[in-house]
Structure formats: C-alpha cells, structure tokens
Amino acid sequence: MRKLLILLFFCVSGFAAEHPGTDAFVKRAVSEYALQENEVRALLAEAEYKQSIIDAISRPAEGKPWHEYRPIFLTNKRIKQGVGFWKKNHELIAAASKQFGVDEEIIVAIIGVETFYGRITGSYRTIDALVTLGFYYPQNLSSDRSPFFSSELMHYIQLAAEEGLPAAEITGSYAGAMGMGQFMPSSYREYAVDFDADGSRDLWRSTADVVGSVANYLHRHGWQPGQVVTRRARASNTAAMDEISGYNFTPTLSVAQWQEKGFSSSSELSPELPAAVLKLVEKDRNTYWLTFKNFYVITRYNRSPRYAMAVYELSQEIKKGMDKSR
Ligand SMILES: [Ca+2]
How many angstroms is it from 10 CA to the middle of ligand 1? Predict the structure, then answer.
C-alpha cells in the first residue's frame, strides 16, 4: 500500500509539472523557431500555474468607467513625481524626443502610468504569467486570448536567449509585461533600443534604454510630434451615437464629417483632420471627445481608450508642473 502511494505521488507530481499544451508548444518551438527542445521543456517545467494571475486577468482596471479609472492615475503624487522624473532625466528625455520625434511629456506620462516612473514593475514571474495565460486562459471571458499569450511566451523564450536574460527569474506584471515601460516580449524584441549604447537593451535598470524604447515604440506606431491628441467635442441632440466605437480609434472621418454627424469641436482644428470620436462615462453624464492620430498611437501601447486618455491628461498636468517650476 505504501509503495503504491509513493508511486501515485510521483505520478501526480509528474503530471502536475507538465502543463496542458506543453507538447504542442514545444513542437512549434523546435520546428518553427529552432529552439532547443530540452531547454524549452526545462523552462516550462519551472513555470507555475498561478490562480492569482487568472483572477487578475478576469477583472482588469480598464473595465472601470472613466470617473473611477481617472483617479487611479491622475493623482498629485503621480504628477509631482512625473515632474521630478522629467527634471532628473531631462537630457535623456530631450535626446529621445529629438531622435524619435515624440513629445517629451508623453514619454514621461507613459512611464508614469505604467510603473510610477519605474518604482512598481510587477512581482509576478514572467514565465508564470505567460504559461498561466497561454495554457490556462479562463474560458468564461469574452474572448480567448490564449493564442496571444502563447505567442508572447514564444517571444519571451527567444528574447531571453537573445539578450542573455535569466528566463526563470524575471518578474513583471500579471500579464507578462516587463520593466519600467512594461513591454511585452514581442514589443521588447521589436521596439526596445540600446539608448545608452552599452551593448544591451535593459528595460529594468537603464532609464536611458527605457526612455529611448518608449519613444521608439510611439515613433514606430506613427506619432506626430507637436500634433493634437484629443479635443473635447459637443454632441448635438441628433448626434450619430451609433457611429462611436468603444475600441477602434483609427481616425477615419474628418473633423468636418464628424461635425455633420453632430460632433463639433473648437474652430482651431483643420476641417480635413482625420478623427475618431470617444465617449467617456462621467459620474452624472457622458462627455465626448474628438481623438486624432496621436491618440490612436497611445492605444497601440494599451488598447483601452481610458488608458490613452489617462496618459494624455497626465502628460498635460506634468507639463503644466514643469512650466511652473522652470
Ligand atoms: Ca543599454
């Protein structure tokens, strides 16, 4: 009986270490990406399923209405520390802004919203996050994002090999985002830059690399320096509310066309300027905004329009704080 129990124990623990989908993943890693089978298997065996990660993905902050979402990011502390971060790194930020053509305050605000200027980069092991979400994605959510996380896991393994990173030790957000700018592995591989030219792209310890990488990310997604991000709009009683998207902020209609549909804004805007319309849910009413190419670019960093609005508003408050202290 005792022997049987011991045998059973080893079987159960053996199975527990093998995540569902491991074989198919390893097969792809080897055939499509020429990764070493034993190394991939060893890394996956180290990864642990975390219920806390499933719980976290099931209730993201982006689900909150704007009037609850905004106060999380638009705090005096985050504004003040943004001014401090900008002053401390003003040469780096100015250099990145110049090289990549991205407004300085937006670079600062992104790092501020993502990690409080590098202070809170996340304590989940990235390998746990990507394996949990890639192999155990909850089926009761509106869309199955396991293919995305599985693909990010593949990128992560390649990134670790390319950059010489300790793949089983790195920590980040519950969704696998890493470092001061919270780059997903695919973004890290594609957009991170070695801005301090020391031979490696280090988004944990090099503020220069982080600032340069955030600027490069926005630049590569089409940032237009000095151009408008968003403007408050007025909606007429007959405005075409059904043409407002909750998730797609590609500017497709012009300011003039939106005006015909009942959404008007200040006269300084060129009538030909392409725009989208955003509705924000305030406590006792809705507000409407014309959003432009640069707003869309911020949504490439995080798809939530509330995220983009928080970044924009924070950037403006930090800029005001900088102007005051100059
Ligand atoms: Ca570097």
Answer: 45
Amino acid code (one letter) for 11: C
Q: Which CATH architecture has domain 51-60+122-216?
A: Orthogonal Bundle (1.10)
User: What average pLDDT does the chain have?
Assistant: 93
Phi-psi region of 108 (alpha: psi -120 to 50; beta: other; left: phi over 0): alpha
Structure token digits, residue 255: 């300011």
Q: How far is the CA of 81 from the centre of ligand 1 (A)?
A: 24
Per residue in 36-68, pLDDT (tens digit) is: 999 999 999 999 999 999 999 998 655 789 999
3-class SS letters over 183-219: ECHHHHHHHCCCCCCCCCCCCCCCHHHHHHHHHHHHH
| Digit-coded pLDDT (tens) for 243-255 | 999 889 999 999 9
- CA dist 183 and 126 (Å) reads 11
**Element (DSSP H or E) covering residue 239:** none
**How far apart, in whole angstroms, are the C-alpha atoms of residue 124 and residue 298?**
25
**117 secondary structure, DSSP code:** T
User: CB within 8 A of 193, min separation 6: which ones?
Assistant: 201, 209, 212, 213, 216
Q: In what order do the strands lie in the sheet with 263-264?
A: 253-254, 274-281, 286-291, 230-235, 263-264
CB distance 146 to 137 below 8 Å: yes
The catalytic site residues sit at 114
d(CA 234, ligand 1 centre) in Å? 46
Stated pTM of the model:
0.92
Expressed in angstroms and rounded, the spacing between residue 208 Cα and the centre of ligand 1 is: 7
| Cβ neighbours of residue 326 closer than 8 Å, sequence gap 6 or more | none
Angle at 151 between CA 120 and CA 25, to 5 degrees: 120
Neighbours of ion ligand 1 (CB under 5 A): 194, 196, 198, 206, 209
Domain range list for the chain: 51-60+122-216
β-strand partners of 269 = none
pLDDT of residue 62: 59
